[in-house]
């Protein structure tokens, strides 16, 4: 009785077109929002904020961005971390060059800068695809990181080669730098995550999203029915890079505070985000949330269990973690190639029929 | 000849030897790609794993000793004996064949007819799994690998080049060995695939899966076979790279370098893999040599990828690859 279209009458086009057509989904959505905005800030401690909640929110944005590219447009990218680095370094350059600029404008501008870089590296996608494109994005990964560590201009010639975030406020609350409270940081990330998820959801079910999916399903056929591949592919790169750039900006500005390009945005981070998208579910907004949650929580849980619980050396736990992640990727691909989001889809089908089996 | 030209030549010669390493890894890629259409990301980690296993056998390490010590509170490290290199290599080959069988049983069998991109991601998972497994089995510290290949400067090259140009090139003796071994390996592979029954079956599968199936070739056996051969090629690459700079994680990054090599050479061409590897190896050393004063060092990190990117725009199928034809 919980999960039914029946009895939920739509009386206007607006309500017919709403994001969650089923009442149960709407209720669940508002409940999650209430928990995120009201309950979590009350119980949030510094440890949980820094080890789980904030990385989770940031990775959701990055995973959403990558999902737009891989899951919705079918363009494989292995350069996510480099685009995050572009976001981080633009934030640093912008906020040190224009200290007066409101920080949320800085974040959005950083996203736009990343978009431009993304489109540039996305240009080869017009001609090539699949593994070939993966190599093109690898070029972005290694070239951009090299650029950021090589040229002093990017890190204002600091002697350590690191960039560190000065203190900035948003609406009178300190959100970056050492004196920012974890609640303020949490709210900053939460607002961005919710806004970006809303944007992603609505883009993917609109015209743009449909052209992306047409390209993904078969690009030649899409071209024949009148989808412009140039616009579809480059817009996908632009939007995806915007998301990833904002995620990188947040990683640097509010989460880590100081980063070094090669360390924080290496190729392993690209793979981590890729795994989130695969495990969560290609082409699913919910999947990005589930995948990010899973891969953020898993290492923390393993560490709690093995290192603190059983007293194993931490490097052993880390190797076991790599092994488990690798095995999970394979298992997910075999058992459910559409990821955790597909599991939820199955549950929904069952709920519709409940309490009857068929 | 001026000094600068000589230095450039020396850099190119050294690049050639790095290129052989790339070629060896790329060779493993091509073998698997031809036989099963799988883009095997795990090839580099396979080389790392093979090298780790070889060192483990040679020094008589107890597998999983760290894990056992952590669980049972014991303090064991090695069996207390060492193994001759030949025996250790044979045992490692057996382990690689075992891995090939397991990969076929546990992974590939279940992913038949999936899209190539799904298979590619599965091999990324495999790469992570093997990397973790290798570290847990044999420990993560950098290890010395010595199977008796001479190392250090090659006096012969030094002498010959000194007599020719009045300047002795510095070339690692190991590199010359690598060159020879790579040549032997490729010859053996070519003979195997041209003149043996299994080799013919292999080529048939590479040509057309379904047609091969219909004349009674077992696809599963062929997969195990190619993964075993790729494992052995990985072992050779692992031995070379390991004796040069120690067995360590950076070995698996070579796998990424093999991607541009493949793009240059073409995904389906064995000579392409060799030529591509050499081109990239020489190219990145020369680029670094000439551009260092202008844009700074460490360009090896990205040069190969950029070269591949430029190359892709003009000749997507690679130097020797088959022409890509797309149909709706």
Description of the structure:
- The complex is a heterodimer of chains A (358) and B (328).
- A two-stranded antiparallel sheet of chain A has the order 1-4.
- Chain A has a single domain, classed as Orthogonal Bundle (ABC transporter involved in vitamin B12 uptake, BtuC), CATH 1.10.3470.
- Helix content of chain A is 72%, strand content 2%.
- Chain A has 15 helices and 4 strands.
- Chain A is an all-alpha fold.
- Chain B is mainly alpha-helical.
- The mean pLDDT of chain B is 80.
- The chains are: A mainly alpha (358), B mainly alpha (328).
- Chains A and B meet through helix 6, helix 9, helix 12 and helix 14 of A and helix 3, helix 5, helix 11 and helix 13 of B.
Structure class of chain B: mainly alpha
Tally of helical runs of chain A: 15
Number of domains of chain B: 1
Strand content of chain B: under 5%
What global shape of chain A is seen?
Answer: globular
Q: Indicate the mean pLDDT of chain A.
A: 86
Instruction: Examine the secondary-structure arrangement and name the CATH architecture of chain A.
Output: Orthogonal Bundle
Helices of chain B, by number, come to: 13
Low-confidence stretches of chain B: none
Number of domains of chain A: 1
Number of strands of chain B: 0
At the fold tier of CATH, the topology name of chain A is ABC transporter involved in vitamin B12 uptake, BtuC
Element order of chain A: H for helix, E for strand: HHHHHHEEEHHHHEHHHHH
H/E order of the elements of chain B?
HHHHHHHHHHHHH
Rg value of chain B: 21 Å
